[in-house]
Design goal:
The chain is of the alpha+beta class and 117 residues long. It has one domain (14-111). Helices cover 32% and strands 10% of the residues.
Length: 117
C-alpha cells in the first residue's frame, strides 16, 4: 500500500508575499483585533479594505504586495499566526492555484517526495 505524502509548511513565507485578497470574517476581525489589543473599529480602519466584489473585507497589503502582517525575519513569520484567517490556515489543502508548488518551499518538497509521510 502506497503511503500518502502530506504537505508540511517549511515557513518560506511565499504564500504571504503573493498579492491578492485575504478575506476575513467578522469573527476573524474580532479575534485579530483582540490579539493585537486594539478596538475592532481601529483594526478595521488600519488593516482592512473592502473586497473588490464589495462582499466582505480583506486584509490590506504592504506596498510590495505582501500581507500586512508578514514579518520579514528568518524564517519569515506571521504577526497574527495564532489567529490568522482561515484562508491562510487552509493553504494549500483547501485553496491554491496552478503552479503553486513551484513558488512554495513545502510544495516543492512535496512534489519531489521530500516530505515526512
Amino acid at each position: 500500500m502506497e503511503e500518502q505524502k502530506q504537505f508540511r509548511c517549511l515557513r518560506c513565507g511565499n504564500c504571504c508575499r503573493w498579492p491578492g485578497c485575504v478575506r476575513i470574517s467578522g469573527a476573524e476581525a474580532d479575534a485579530i483585533a483582540a490579539y493585537l489589543g486594539v478596538p475592532v473599529g481601529e483594526f478595521l480602519d488600519r488593516y482592512t479594505a473592502l473586497m473588490p466584489d464589495r462582499q466582505g473585507l480583506t486584509l490590506i497589503e504592504q506596498v510590495s504586495g505582501s500581507c500586512i502582517f508578514l514579518e520579514e525575519c528568518e524564517p519569515p513569520a506571521c504577526r497574527i499566526d495564532p489567529v490568522k484567517p482561515s484562508q491562510c490556515r487552509r493553504f494549500p489543502e483547501h485553496w491554491n492555484f496552478p503552479g503553486w508548488e513551484k513558488e512554495c518551499a513545502g510544495g516543492a518538497a512535496l512534489s519531489k517526495g521530500e516530505t515526512e509521510k
